[in-house]
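Model it.
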Amino acid sequence: AAVVAVAVTAAWFAGVGTPGDELFRTYLNESGEIAALRLEDGTQVWMQDGTELQYAVGAGSEERIVRIDGEAYFDVVKGRGTFRVDMNDDTSIEVLGTKFNVAAFAEKNSVIATLEEGAIKFIGGDREILLEPDQQLVYDRATLKCQVSDVDASIYTAWKEPVYKYMSITMAELCHELERLYGLDICLNPNIGNIRVSGSFKRKDDIETILGVMEKRMQFQWTRNGDHIQIE
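Modeled.
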């Protein structure tokens, strides 16, 4: 479980040259907690544990460049030129000033961008897709296909807060989030996978506490064997 950190508690390394001879700094969050930091332009970033972010320092006022491997939430300062997030392929996201979440792990096949406020443009290959608030884009790196859907963005950005909130999502979606947040493998009975649930829990709560409360409300049974949980 994690709480919002007031500063990056992991490593900081001076960076890498680019064709434009820009200097990047690398922020690597290995603290076991959520790390919050402010970039030199004033942009606020929250980083999941295990996330690496590179930020172009001195890149000029016309463009701010970030590279990400992991998951981060951005609250981008307006009026400072274009802000661009590059992933580990030929995809990127461009904004002028907005709030959005990006999950782009190098070892995974998908890039997931969720817009909370403002507007962002996803660029992948020869495609450019504009997102509106409460829309989510899923890009499959293997097939190069994009899918855009309407979502409650607050559900996908709640991880940065001490309290995780969810509203009318399926049990399957919630279990997927619990897997990600707690590093578990959850096997869910398909018969209850489509049941919609709402609620909240504290990020410091352990998985036994969370499932114990849900078990009483939904009358299911669960067992745990190491990192594997079975819900019936």
